[in-house]
Design goal:
The chain is built from 3 helices and 5 strands, in the order βββαβαβα. With about 130 residues, the protein is of the alpha/beta class. The strands form 2 sheets. A 3-stranded parallel beta sheet has the order 1-4-5, covered by helices on one side. It has a two-stranded antiparallel sheet with strand order 2-3.
Length: about 130
C-alpha cells in the first residue's frame, strides 16, 4: 500500500551514494548505483529529495557545480543541492537517520514505519 504522505528527505553524498577516496579527491568518487536507484524511486514517488554535502566545508572551496555535474552524470534525481553550512562532524547521532546500505527496502512506507517507531520510543524528541 502506497502512502500519500510526502517527505522532505535529505541525503548525504560521500559514503552514502558514492565511495570517495580518503584523499577527498571527489573526481575519483564512484557511484553506488543501487543506492541511487533507491533514492530515485523516492523522488519518483513524489518526495522532495535534497542532496546535502560537506564538500568544501573544511577547505571553503565551492564544489557545487562539480557536484551537480556528478549527480547528473550518475543519474541522480533531486530537487536541490545544499552544501555549506553543513557541520563538519565525525559522527552523526540522529533519531531520524536511515542508512540505505543497511535498509533492505528503502521506500516511503518503510521510512514512515521507522519514523513512527522512533516517535513512539522517544516522544520527547518529536518536533511538533
Amino acid at each position: 500500500m502506497q502512502s500519500n504522505k510526502k517527505l522532505n528527505i535529505y541525503v548525504d553524498i560521500d559514503e552514502t551514494i558514492c565511495r570517495t577516496p580518503s584523499t577527498r579527491n571527489y573526481s575519483e568518487s564512484v557511484p553506488i548505483q543501487n543506492i541511487i536507484e533507491k533514492i530515485n524511486k523516492l523522488y519518483d514517488e513524489g518526495n522532495t529529495i535534497v542532496y546535502w554535502t560537506s564538500r568544501g566545508c573544511k577547505s571553503k572551496k565551492d564544489y557545487s557545480e562539480f557536484t551537480k555535474s556528478q549527480l547528473e552524470k550518475w543519474g541522480c534525481k533531486y530537487h536541490k543541492l545544499e552544501s555549506l553550512p553543513k557541520p563538519n562532524y565525525d559522527i552523526l547521532i540522529d533519531d531520524r537517520t536511515i542508512n540505505p546500505l543497511v535498509e533492505k527496502e528503502l521506500n516511503i512506507n518503510n521510512i514512515l514505519e521507522i519514523r513512527d517507531h522512533f516517535v513512539q520510543q522517544f516522544p520527547q524528541n518529536t518536533v511538533q
